[in-house]
């Protein structure tokens, strides 16, 4: 199975498939048009892509790397062959896009993977085959530290280290640094044998926010580890919208009802499915993107 990825530009999905033979990503042409035009109608995006491809050919713009050897999910739910572009071709199209509408997209596309988040996300993809998850003891602080160290090692000098400073985000003040060590011991000892217990433990770990950065991305993987080991389930994060998730997590400081409802609807038994894992990473990082 090819590795699959979902990137997000202005909340629009841009799907990609990994080509093992040529060692590169191929991106859905229809998704790129939808992202640039801010258009959600699949047929309009597909028709515009056909128009754009023909226009560039007439204008003498050579699109040297367009293929239809990869399948993407169509609106009817079936996997269908569709035009895909490699990174070089995406940049060619963006530079020649009508009315300069693609300048912001081009900036995003060429810069995203050089950021700390981009590099960390690449590391996160490799977790599936790394074998690390099988060695971790679910529900422990040490397991969370090891996940954080894996994602952010070489990117942050505090990767895997419990913070010693008090932090906040928006109007939320996380556990005071002077109380954090004791608080984490309490969270670690919380039971995790039922769905409600596991989510309660996740909510408390989120309230602790043990790292200076990268808490959400690490803790969502930590949550899935517990669910897999205890219930043989995991979260299909692609079924949980960004705004709804973030709002529910804020609410969970006083009432965890909403976040539990979201998780319960998104549970799947595909705990060993690579595509489910990859989508989970993509959505997890998407939740952290600034609007």
Spatial strand arrangement across the major sheet: 1-2-3-7-4
Indicate the overall shape. elongated
Strand content: 5-15%
What is the architecture of the largest domain at the second tier of CATH? Answer: Orthogonal Bundle
Strand and helix layout:
Layout: E1 4-9, E2 12-19, E3 24-28, H1 29-37, H2 42-58, E4 66-67, E5 71-73, E6 79-81, E7 84-86, H3 87-95, H4 103-111, H5 116-125, H6 127-130, H7 132-135, H8 141-152, E8 168-169, E9 172-173, H9 177-188, H10 195-208, H11 215-231, E10 234-235, H12 242-251, H13 257-266, E11 267-268, H14 274-287
Antiparallel strand pairs: 1-2, 2-3, 3-7, 4-7, 5-6, 8-9, 10-11
Helix pairs in contact: 1-2, 3-4, 5-14, 8-11, 9-10, 10-11, 12-13
Brief write-up:
This protein has 291 residues and is of the alpha+beta class. The chain has 14 helices and 11 strands.
What does this structure look like?
With 291 residues, the chain is α+β, with helices and mostly antiparallel strands. It folds into 2 domains: 4-113; 119-287, Fido-like domain (Fic-like fold, Orthogonal Bundle), CATH 1.10.3290.10. It has helices spanning 29-37, 42-58, 87-95, 103-111, 116-125, 127-130, 132-135, 141-152, 177-188, 195-208, 215-231, 242-251, 257-266, 274-287, and strands at 4-9, 12-19, 24-28, 66-67, 71-73, 79-81, 84-86, 168-169, 172-173, 234-235, 267-268. The strands form 4 sheets. A 5-stranded antiparallel β-sheet has the order 1-2-3-7-4. Helix 3 runs antiparallel to helix 4 (103-111) and helix 8 packs across helix 11. The radius of gyration is 21 Å and the shape is elongated. The mean pLDDT is 91.
């Amino acid at each position: 199975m090819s590795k699959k990825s979902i990137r997000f530009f202005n909340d629009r999905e841009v799907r990609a498939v990994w080509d093992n033979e040529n060692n590169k990503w191929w991106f859905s042409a229809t998704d790129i048009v939808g992202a640039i035009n801010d258009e959600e109608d699949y047929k309009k995006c597909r028709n515009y892509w056909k128009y754009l491809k023909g226009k560039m050919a007439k204008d003498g713009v050579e699109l040297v790397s367009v293929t239809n050897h990869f399948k993407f999910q169509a609106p009817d739910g079936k996997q269908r062959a569709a035009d895909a572009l490699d990174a070089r071709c995406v940049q060619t199209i963006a530079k020649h896009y009508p009315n300069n509408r693609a300048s912001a997209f081009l900036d995003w596309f060429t810069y995203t993977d050089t950021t700390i988040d981009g590099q960390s996300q690449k590391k996160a993809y490799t977790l599936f085959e790394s074998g690390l998850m099988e060695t971790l003891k679910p529900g422990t602080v040490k397991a969370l530290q090891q996940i954080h160290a894996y994602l952010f090692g070489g990117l942050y000098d505090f990767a895997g280290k419990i913070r010693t400073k008090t932090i906040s985000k928006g109007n939320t003040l996380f556990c005071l640094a002077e109380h954090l060590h004791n608080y984490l011991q309490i969270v670690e000892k919380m039971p995790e044998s039922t769905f409600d217990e596991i989510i309660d433990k996740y909510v408390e770990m989120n309230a602790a926010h043990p790292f200076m950065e990268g808490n959400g991305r690490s803790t969502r993987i930590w949550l899935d580890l517990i669910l897999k080991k205890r219930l043989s389930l995991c979260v299909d994060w692609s079924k949980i919208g960004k705004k709804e998730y973030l709002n529910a997590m804020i609410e969970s400081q006083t009432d965890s009802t909403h976040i539990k409802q979201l998780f319960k609807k998104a549970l799947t038994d595909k705990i060993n499915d690579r595509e489910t894992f990859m989508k989970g990473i993509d959505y997890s990082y998407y939740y952290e993107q600034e609007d």
